[in-house]
Each structure stands twice: as structure tokens, then as C-alpha cells.
Amino acid sequence: MDIKINKHSNYKKTVEEAFILAAGLGRRLMPLTKNMPKPLVEINQKPMIDYIFDALTTIDINKIYINTHYQHERIFEYIERKKISNVHISHETALLDTGGGIKNAIDPDTTQAIMIINCDAILLNNYSNLLQDLKKKFNPDKMDALLAFSSPKNAVGYSGSGDYIIANDGTVIESGRSEKMVFMGISVLNSKTLELVNTERFSLVEIWSKLIKKRTCYGMVFENIWFHAGNVEAIKLANQFSK
């Protein structure tokens, strides 16, 4: 059965809002996260989340959502000190996973596409360029999602074999003969697609799976090195790279 997604007649075609996924427990970064939430772990003496803030400021994002859970007070205090006025914090007393966390935080009546960034996706260079390209290439007339990918060789700290394949027409597919690309944890999503899942706690993977079948999930390839800062070794590599 085809999945229908009703878009408001005044659906905005520009991407003006972003969501930083920051509610993880950071267990794989222990002991760095023993007394600190993962987004505040430093790379080259700069908290990971600051790389994202700087890039979002450059591309004129008007509203930034952040979900928090572990050591959430530290993130709140940090943002207070930074005096960032356009940040809306959603504290999760129980983890809602990626899709559930976003759906819980944003306005259910929004007519915005939203940029979604996992806080451990780190680009020491060209971060704003990647986000600007993603913003420009998202076409809501044919896309419900646009995901950023890289080849496995450019994903420092990533140990898997890839996640999805990008077909010749730019759509994302789950299997085929081509090399699987690595999803970078960065995407743009038609926020109305969150209504496709009715549970409170769910992963964005559930949304993408539905959009892949509908052929409205697209991919964009980033050609430069980036860091999947999901473990201590990746943090060390990023610090070495930046010197």
C-alpha cells in the first residue's frame, strides 16, 4: 500500500530549523563521559557541539532544537553561558530514540523541513559547506528525506561496512551490487513524515525504511574526511588530525 503524507498548503520549501541529537548516554566514550555528556567532549579544545553550532550559524538556521538526557544540566548550563538565544532544549526523562526524541520536541503543526544532526558526526573542516549543500539540494517537491553519506574510507572511527546504497537516480536503496555508503548522521527530513510511526519511542530508521519503499528518500555524498566520534580512539584520531 502506498504511503500518503499530507503536506500543508503553506509547507515551507526552505530549511530554517535544525535538531541536534544529544540525548545519548555516551557509554562508548567512557571515561571521557564519566562526568560529562558526550556533546561537551572536546576535540582540539573545543566541545563537539560547538562545531555544529558554528556551522548552523553560518548557514542561517533560525531555530535549533536539542534533546538531552544524560547529564542534561551540563548542556543547559553550557548553552546559558554561550548565550545562544535560538536554542530550544527538550529534556527526556526516558530515552525516546532518534525519531521519538524529535517528534516529542518539535511543534506538531510545523510546516518546516528540519535538518537533523547527530552530535558525534564531526567535521573539522567544511562543516558549514556540507550543511549548506544539504540545505540547497533538499527538494521538498520530490524528497521527504535527504541523507548525507560518505564512502567508508573517509569515515574515520567507523568500523562497519556501510549502511545504504545510492541508486543512479539519487534515491536511497537498502541492497544492491554497488558499494554501501556510510550514513553520516546528518540529514534533512520532512517533519510530517514523523507521523508515519505512532509509537512514542522509535528510531529514524523506521521512517527512512518507509520512505525508501516510497522512493522519496534521497542521498548526497560528502567527499572529504570526517570523524565518527563514537569511541575514545576516534576522539584521539580527531585530535591528532587537528594538530
SSE topology sketch:
Elements: E1 15-21, H1 48-58, E2 63-68, H2 72-82, E3 87-91, H3 97-105, E4 113-118, E5 121-122, H4 127-137, E6 145-150, E7 155-156, E8 165-166, E9 172-173, E10 182-190, H5 204-214, E11 217-221, E12 226-228, H6 232-241
Parallel strand pairs: 1-2, 1-4, 2-3, 6-11, 7-12
Antiparallel strand pairs: 4-10, 5-12, 6-10, 8-9
Summarize the structure in short.
Helix content is 26%, strand content 23%.
Spatial order of strands in the largest sheet: 3-2-1-4-10-6-11
- Poorly predicted residue ranges: 6-10
Total helix count? 6
Label the structural class. Answer: alpha/beta
The 3D shape can be described as globular
Main sheet specs: 7 strands, mixed
pLDDT averaged over residues:
88
| CATH homologous superfamily (4th level) name | Spore Coat Polysaccharide Biosynthesis Protein SpsA, Chain A
